[in-house]
Input
Amino acid sequence: MTDSPSATEAAAPSRRAWIGLAVLSAGLGMIVLDGTIVGVALPDIIRDLKMDLTDAQWVNSLYAVLLAALLLSTGRLSDRWGRKRLFLIGIVIFMAGSLLAAMSEASGPLIAARAVQAVGAALIMPSTLSTVNATFRGKYRATAFGIWGAVISGAAAVGPLAGGALTQWGSWQWIFLVNIPLGAIVFIAAMVTVPETKGGKARPGADVDGALLSAIGFGALVFAVIEGPDLGWWTPKSELHIFGLVWPTTAPISIVPIALLVAVVALALFVVWERHRAKVRRSALLDLDLFLLPTFSWGNVTAAMVAVGEFTILFVLPLYLINALGLDVMGAGLVLAAMAIGAFVSGAMARHLAAKFGSPGTVLIGLGLEFAGILAVAFVITATTPGWLVAVPLVVYGLGLGLASAQLTGTVLRDVPMEVSGQGSATQSTVRQIGSALGTAFAGAALSVALALTLPAALEREGITGTQAETLAETTRQSAGSTISQLRAEGSASPLGDHTDAAVHALAGGFADGTRWAMLIGAAFLLLGFVGAMRLRAASKRPAPELPEQVSETVS
Output
């Protein structure tokens, strides 16, 4: 469904509408920032809370996976109850979760606080995009979407720098405490400037079963990917303790393939259930008929791959920069800020490129730059690479990220009926968050598997073998590299004595090799995104198909 003539010729939005867009963008930026700000501070959090690599992955991934699991439900709620109302409620819950995170003194409470933050973020995100979609028309909608996309890419890229500054000059707790004053300002401003909008008349009933099935499916998938390296992909490697129950190492099979099976079954049942809800004219969490729109389908595929690549970088690189290269958190933040430079530059020029190549063409250019950037990063990584040399290809990556994100949003929603913009935007945001969660999960899993191979080999090259080498390699892998920083700080006073420097050099080299493999995994996903962008561009040149009659009934 394309814009009607009246929409195309819409009058210019009021000054209040543009101010409202800025406020919504600030709220969106806050929750996107929180998805990436943790990365640079993670080594400090790992050390202070005595976390392992798996816990670290959950700190990042739980936020993204729970956000993804809830977005479809909250998108429906925003259409029904009012988008401004849910936005304000979300801000309050997000601030509460941030306060709990800052007060955490162990990994469990911190992970739980991240879950509370995710609930708040799930109320905020679809409300922002659907409000923009409902408020702006014609050429002004494209501009508003460009701003929305630029905020996503820019805030995500700025996160590491902000995290580095707050951690360096304060403590890691400040990456969460900063949300309190920011949230209060956004809340007050939204009360005054953001209009209340709702969707069309919805079908009866709440799709509780659909929400549970999607949450179980996505949660089980991310659990399997994160826990696989430690628990064993098939044969149990270690015990799993959960809710007082134990999955022993003597079990005939690891719980990981069972979790994967649960994920497949739950997501398959989710699709079947949503089809059933649509058939009987009941409210469905996800209108699968929207995927009959080629631009919507291929746009979401592309968005997911972009998110996987981005969060691969944001999870793995800070660990490498701080632990392997020995940079402080501010230094690591400055290196990663190169992405923000590229993202802001390209975000500003995206509309000019879109005027020449079209939005889908601009997305394609962006994906090409992202792929080239992450591939270059993978090949320059060593134990002695200067930080500036890592930053240079990150600028290229950031340029691509800004182009792709700024133009992808409007392209995905181009043919979606305005009346279901809440669900359409929630679906897109869900796909992005699934990609974010899987990016962290895949990157962490790839790093863990790679380190199990690269660390022993590196130690052996330095003449460190036997039980000592095995212990060093395993503790370094489990600590996500923080053992290297600890040994570097202790020097010859460490238990390794005069062999400390050799061990640090070996472990740093092995960690760099493991990081390279994780980067190559991210590059592979971005290559899939490039293919998706090619299909998106082809689909955008064809007229949008008419959606089935039941969709128009839903939105009438």
